[in-house]
Amino acid sequence: MKMYESRFLAVYFFPEEKIHENVWLPASEEMEEHNYQEESLNFLEILLNNQPEGFIADTREMNFGIMPDLQAWTNEHILSKALSSNIKKVAFLISKEMITQLSIEQTMEESEEVALRTRYFDNREAAWQWLTS
How many alpha carbons fall within 13 Å on the CB side of residue 47? Predict the structure, then answer.
């Protein structure tokens, strides 16, 4: 079920599977830092309200590079709170933009927490299969 949509991001929650999904949209290339922060806080609120066990970040159309200062902000304000939720597994659908992908991976690597099991996929079906196994 769709929980939120803007021109940059669509957020879904699937209660039976206990999976939260973020789908970054092509317009994300027009985002500025404050847009990324707002969208991140929006999806975090939905995530914390629904307490999923699995999380899919579909970054295939995300055309916004997360610079080092924003990576630090993400770790402090988003990942630290997400780690306190019920999430056990995170699946990233790989972005077409290698710079974006690198910045997403660096954000996850810089997190000092290791409670989440994270994997990267190039198709949604494989990500779902891993999350629900």
Answer: 28
Which amino acid is located at 121 in the chain?
F
CA distance 87 to 85: 6
| Contact of 9 with 39, CB cutoff 8 Å | yes
Q: What is the pLDDT of residues 30-68, one digit of tens each?
A: 999 999 999 999 999 999 999 999 999 999 898 898 999
- Cα distance between residue 101 and residue 96, in whole Å: 8
What domains sit in the chain, N to C, each tagged with a CATH number? 2-131 (3.30.750.24)
84-112 burial: b if 16+ Cβ within 10 Å, else e: ebebebbbbbbbebeebbebbbebbeebe
